[in-house]
């Protein structure tokens, strides 16, 4: 074996050190570029307005996102579908000259413009209007705890005080939107709770109005394709929802930014496997848009090589991330990508547990998936606004990690 001189050793060490530093500098520059793109996407999305399905804001946002996907290197288009948009005409409770504005559950019944007048109290009191509380867990589970009460023949309406992580009104998603049922449920803000309890204690009547109509409309999924070199291979599918109740800066913004970063990375790498990326509307309506996407592509859930799901609150300030996966192998790949990006995700959903968000559609269909989502202090709240609700650096690291995971899964092996 040849022996290195001291000068040769120092020269080689210096070269290795320089290469290491150059690699570090290049990686840092790439991360800075990604953070800048992430910030731009989330701020633009937030500024568009309230992202409810099939509204003008929702459709404008779809066109904007399709353009962003095309700039990232995909063939992007809008995939429209019919939906009965809920248009709220009036939604409030009123007594003694005070009015509390609210929002009906979108998968329940509605009143007429006059509404219902009667006493309010806990369900066991048997009054015309039942008073309940939906805490953060109840909101996250789409108000399922109210299902039996909603089918009651004792009451004429339900008032649900929403006690989310942030004060105010934090609506539940409409898990039963495709088949609405039951009594009108009016969701109201935490500020109204003491007032409603006082009305109960004094036995005073309350006017309850949840006046809304269902209007035949169109919504759109954004479908972006990055063709692979071997089109016969099963595709990688990357998905994220793009609609919600309010501005949704942290709830949806981080996922959209990561979705675009995955497109950008796979497009640049020129990989064997085709990637299909879908950003679906109808999230707050029981994943209505994703259901339409899957119905038009029978067998895709199992046929796809893998699914990556970007769920709620990715990069939410003060949030806690959670990883959901279908099997040990893909969890190991996701964990490695997260570690390489400097991200720590301590919450892991136990194997076999039905996951949250759109990943549950893939789980129920027997598909393979890796899903990242989490909690956030502004979840489903109008205070979820750029920049206060967003940790851009964290969102960019998730973009780093899952762009790398997408590239790995789009390989032929």
Task: Summarize this entry quickly.
With 413 residues, the protein is α/β, with parallel strands linked by helices.
Fold and architecture overview:
The structure is a single chain. This protein has helices at residues 6-47, 56-71, 136-140, 147-150, 193-202, 249-269, 288-295, 300-303, 328-340, 359-364, 392-409, and strands spanning 75-95, 98-104, 116-121, 129-135, 157-163, 185-188, 205-226, 236-241, 275-280, 306-310, 321-325, 347-348, 369-374. With 413 residues, it is an alpha/beta fold. It has two domains: 39-84 and 216-409, Aminopeptidase; 86-214, Glucose Oxidase, domain 1 (3-Layer(bba) Sandwich), CATH 3.50.30. A seven-stranded mixed β-barrel has the order 1-2-6-5-4-3-7, surrounded by four helices. Strand 11, helix 9 (328-340) and strand 12 form a beta-alpha-beta unit. Helix 1 (6-47) packs across helix 6 and helix 6 (249-269) packs parallel to helix 11 (392-409). The chain is elongated. The two termini are 38 Å apart.
Task: Give me some keywords for this one.
single chain; 413 residues; alpha/beta; Aminopeptidase; Glucose Oxidase, domain 1; 7-stranded mixed barrel; 36% helix
Secondary structure layout plus pairing:
Elements: H1 6-47, H2 56-71, E1 75-95, E2 98-104, E3 116-121, E4 129-135, H3 136-140, H4 147-150, E5 157-163, E6 185-188, H5 193-202, E7 205-226, E8 236-241, H6 249-269, E9 275-280, H7 288-295, H8 300-303, E10 306-310, E11 321-325, H9 328-340, E12 347-348, H10 359-364, E13 369-374, H11 392-409
Parallel strand pairs: 3-4, 4-5, 5-6, 8-9, 8-10, 10-13, 11-12
Antiparallel strand pairs: 1-2, 1-7, 2-6, 3-7, 7-9, 11-13
